[in-house]
Amino acid sequence: MQDNTQTTHRTTIETLIAQHKDLPGALMPLLHAVQDALGHVPDDVVPQIATALNLSRAEVHGVVTFYHHFRREPAGRAVVQVCRAEACQSCGADDLLAHAERVLGCAAHHTSTDGAFTLEPVFCLGLCASSPAIRIGERLHSRVTPEKFDRLVAASVLAGVPA
Ligand code: FES
Predict the structure, then answer these.
(1) Is the C-beta atom of 140 inside 6 A of ligand 1?
(2) What is the sign, positive or negative, of the torsion defined by CA atoms of 105, 145, 122, 40?
(3) Handedness of CA 117, 121, 125, 130 (dihedral sign)
(4) CB of 122 closer than 6 A to ligand 1?
(5) Which of 13, 53, 154, 155 has a CA-to-CA distance to 116 between 20 and 30 Å?
């Protein structure tokens, strides 16, 4: 099973490399495409990407680890994003993120031990006038209080996550 998954990953990466390698500044769009396809950028694809783009492994690894957007591990069944940009910060986003860490039982940029939720701080979800904002799975939520957060998470769990 593991071998099948790795073979599938390798084939996917080969296809994505072929689609992106001749673009100017190919690394970033390629990494985005890998994450979109696999849900994360596995460490074992770094050498393959480095070779294809004529970069060092350290350069590719450095970009993957510099940008929090790129996950190196598979995400939980639902990704919870808490906006930390200015409008949301002024309406309690920091406290909301701390609350989310307690409720989900994982720090920002990590996944709960049961694999249900990955918690990610993000910068602007486009709901600045209705701050603070979060996203659970594909759904956006505005004016999120700690109580509303708890309700949304409970509803996600009842729905079997993803929300
Ligand atoms: S600042 Fe939070 S949604 Fe824009």
Answers:
(1) no
(2) positive
(3) positive
(4) no
(5) 13
Report the distance separating Cα 55 and Cα 32, nearest Å.
Answer: 17
Residue-wise pLDDT for 104-116, tens only, equals 999 999 999 999 9
Instruction: Name the helix (H) or strand (E) containing 68.
Output: none
Q: For the chain, give me the number of helices (H) and strands (E)?
A: 7, 5
C-alpha 90/C-alpha 151 separation (Å) is 23
Q: What is the DSSP letter of 129?
A: G
How far is the centre of ligand 1, averaged over its atoms, from the C-alpha of 120 (Å)?
A: 14
Per DSSP bridges, beta strands 78-83 and 110-111 are unpaired
Q: Take residue 52 and report the two structure tokens written for it.
A: 């294809």
